Amino acid sequence: MKIVDKILKAEEENRPYWSFEYFPPKTQQGVVNLYDRIGRMYNLGPLFIDVTWRWGGKSSDLTLEICSTSQSVYGLEANMHMTCTNTSFKLIKRALAVAKENGIQNILALRGDLPDGSTEFDPEEGEFRYASDLVKYIRKQYGDYFCISVAGYPEGCSSPDDVEKDIQYLKEKIDAGADLVVTQLFYDVDLFVDWVKRCRDAGIKAPILPGIMPIQNYNGFKRMTDLCRIKVPQEIWDNLEDIKDDDQAVKNYGIKVAVDMIKKLRANGIIGTHFYTLNLERSTQMILEELNYIPDLEAIRPLPWAQSISDKRSRETVRPIFWRNQTKNYIARTANWDEFPNGRWGDARSPAYGELIHGVQIRFTGENALKLWGTPTSVDDVKDLFVKYCQGKISSLPWSDTPLLPESEEIRETLTGFNRAGFLTINSQPSTNSAPSNDPVHGWGPPNGFVYKKAYLEFFVAPEALPALLEQMENHPTLTYLVVNKKGNLKSNFDTGSPNAVTWGVFPGKEIIQPTIVEATSFMAWKDEAYDFWLAWSRVYPQESESRKLLEKISDEWYLMNIVENNYLKPTSTISQLLIGKTNGTTTN
Amino acid sequence: MKIVDKILKAEEENRPYWSFEYFPPKTQQGVVNLYDRIGRMYNLGPLFIDVTWRWGGKSSDLTLEICSTSQSVYGLEANMHMTCTNTSFKLIKRALAVAKENGIQNILALRGDLPDGSTEFDPEEGEFRYASDLVKYIRKQYGDYFCISVAGYPEGCSSPDDVEKDIQYLKEKIDAGADLVVTQLFYDVDLFVDWVKRCRDAGIKAPILPGIMPIQNYNGFKRMTDLCRIKVPQEIWDNLEDIKDDDQAVKNYGIKVAVDMIKKLRANGIIGTHFYTLNLERSTQMILEELNYIPDLEAIRPLPWAQSISDKRSRETVRPIFWRNQTKNYIARTANWDEFPNGRWGDARSPAYGELIHGVQIRFTGENALKLWGTPTSVDDVKDLFVKYCQGKISSLPWSDTPLLPESEEIRETLTGFNRAGFLTINSQPSTNSAPSNDPVHGWGPPNGFVYKKAYLEFFVAPEALPALLEQMENHPTLTYLVVNKKGNLKSNFDTGSPNAVTWGVFPGKEIIQPTIVEATSFMAWKDEAYDFWLAWSRVYPQESESRKLLEKISDEWYLMNIVENNYLKPTSTISQLLIGKTNGTTTN
């Protein structure tokens, strides 16, 4: 979707909106962390996100990848930056084609940096001189497909003297076909408001989105504003003077400055904000909270998981629960599906899940992994790691990159008990009975609705513990299970042709929405990955090492099982009785 | 489905089963009453029903119609009787073709009555002499399509001396291709058990279903058993002697006799029962209750409404609520649909509802209608009739052939209040919050599930009362409505492209099942019928009469509205506040 349409709608409804700008991190670990952050900041309800651009094989590919992943995995519309200087026409052509292929529909067209030391740029034949050339080129080649935004410079591009000339350049960029202006950062609201007025007077009608960069620390702020010749009101310098050595105090003051600026902009009829996040999370979040811009749950959580943004996936409203902590893998495995289940699993009952070609990746490898997980040499060591993860003492396991979700807080102790008893849990959700759809933890979907969850537990279990467990299951008619081993021998106690809805919502004037299911076909696809995580982990340790052999053995011999408690009305779960009731008895590991 | 398959399954599971035999009534009113009865007796869980046959234009057409309606409207597998004497080959050929066209898959092949006074039958060229000829013919023409049952005569067809010969005839009928034996009625269980043994000895392996006719009154019983030379144990005569003048006592004794017979048969390994109901309901029901053959809700109520039995409709699992009291009309209007909504309204969102060609029929016409509804000459008179219907003082209104459903008992007084306030209600359901799926009133679907309903109310409202009502609606965000006038001007307060699920169930190992919806397209089709009932009613009165003009005026001017309370958790309904809260105020009729 074009972000300008989202902006015009928000403007029409006089509804404040905001966007977040990120830059591609330099390390793989940084990229993984950024994805986590983007995923969390989704809940702050940005209208879209920006990702900056640097030319050069990996750099620009990474921008493309982050934009594409933001859309498919995190359901966030991406505005991809693209510069036109210092690069060839051919590369630009290719980058635009790849962007379109990846479903990216928004480009921020920039001139880019000049060659070192230059103040004027002399392009070669076939190269672009100005951002307006890039705008024209995109419009010519792609018609209306892309929403094009361009940069605005409230304090002039290079110097304050350029302001009037820059407004003319901006007008040219708009006339060349740009839809939207995103401005350089500033700290003087009066100056900005005046500049906007001058733009309007010059005939620029496109939406203008002010760039706000929360102050993060004194030295950085001083260096940056000096370098970019950005005017900072004296009051800000005065206030910073006393606290400049206290980073936390500076950050907090930065939040206050931004809040005041946004309020003042709003008083002047400017209701949008573009945050230069510097890939940081806290300041932006605090500012939005301070402003009481509490995101509207309906707007940001139409379903309990983030929907992909792509035409192909737009009808996807049901997913299996198994990949809940591995959404990227799910998107990848199902990338080639022709259609997605809509409302019910129905016709896509046997979707051809793509093969797991390259195996799974674990986040921590080498030294980091050793530091986190040590060198387990017995099942008890492994069990201890799972227990520690549930207790929050380690932040990650191969199956779960992030700590337990807030919704699982209430079952943290129970989960700890399961793992202590030798049931190594890798996925779970507590039951929810008719929580309001605007509940901050459990809620999703339109207002005045009610949401539900059946308790779900997925775990590895030792082969010697399985028979007694299955026997016990027979006494609990409200429990349904699927259990499989690495070879794929599946056993269950319900009609596996039928999916089990484990998350659903009831809303005014709507059919029941059931976005999460437990289902045998997808479980069989998931189990390949679930077992592969053992092997990926084992490769942290040298061949023939005790740890490696241990993890391989578990992968070969243990069963992967999931249990659903279908009675979501019961306050205490039968699953607990079943698993913890037998702690002292038959478990053998 | 072939009834023999259902029987063999029940036999394999050693699960008692029963079937009901009806005959086509002579009057139209009788047919209407029989349908009501068949609908109610559905809840007694018969494995199938039989409908007897008499040749002759209307008679045999009526048998076909009752069989076909039982399957499509009441979801009951029908076993259609067919005789082969006294009729032409051509008629038989046509009747079988029509039966197949109508989805009837079970035929009871009989010889039929002989011409008056004959004891032997001499067919003309091309006619059938014996039932076995008919069996052979059906098998030859239709292969395996039909399940064919044949009659067995435990006491001989014409006289006790024929028994052995009749067993040979029976063997011939089975050898000719019959699947199943349904026996003539009897009262001597020992005799029957012995006869079954002789049948088995003669090589008859097909299931044998004993015919039981509960004694209804002394004289009828005596006449019938004399005429048919049926042996009645002396004990029964002795017991009847003292009570023969007390019909109720005889009926009760008849129940006891049948219960004892069925128990004794069961002790001898015979677990099926074919009830000759004589189109009566109470005895059969009492016998089944006495035997503790409480129907398994799962088996008989997979959905809250009876599913049609036809290949075409087999995937139909969602229906609009509007035709709840007019299922036959719904089946007729949708008879030509290519596919039926399955699980969600989805792709059938704009199904082409057939036109309402002949207008609606009301059950009571002429004298009966006048007796029931009198001659209303004011809106208050009409209102009084609706109030009386809710109070149970009159049994029927044009829109509702039968009294309020048991599930509506709890809202009877509220409904009365609505009608007194001038909101003429024609359909409603109270809300249900997580009732167990085996609840005797609200339950449906598999065990260990929970079922839900949103409160629903549909009513006619005077044009002068509508504006205030719509204004009030704005204060109630949990209410959604659709309102339309005769011309078809539709207004609503929700996205009418989306259906509202008003009945749903959550079950172990399954997706959410949502069998009843409120939806705009179908509401527009239904409103034609809803308004037509006013006109059908008006035609009870002479042209130019006050009553006729009144009902026509209401039909022309009043609005048809439905309201859903989407908060099904609230114990008291906002609809009540809305409608009854304004009784003394703004309503004007």
UniProtKB/TrEMBL annotation, chains A, B:
From its record, what is one biological process in GO terms? tetrahydrofolate interconversion
Pfam families linked: MTHFR (PF02219), MTHFR_C (PF21895)
The highest taxon in the source lineage is: Eukaryota
- GO cellular component terms attached to this protein's record: cytosol
Q: Protease: is it a keyword of this entry? A: no
Cite the entry's keywords alphabetically: FAD, Flavoprotein, NADP, Oxidoreductase
- Give a yes or no for keyword Flavoprotein in this entry: yes
Assigned EC number: 1.5.1.20
MTHFR SAM-binding regulatory domain span: 301-571
Q: Can you name one GO molecular function term for this protein?
A: methylenetetrahydrofolate reductase [NAD(P)H] activity
Q: Which cofactor does it need?
A: FAD
List the pathway annotation: One-carbon metabolism; tetrahydrofolate interconversion
Gene3D superfamilies for this protein: 3.20.20.220
Q: Which family does it belong to?
A: Belongs to the methylenetetrahydrofolate reductase family.
Q: What is this protein called?
A: Methylenetetrahydrofolate reductase (NAD(P)H) met13
Species: Mycoemilia scoparia
| Gene designation | MET13
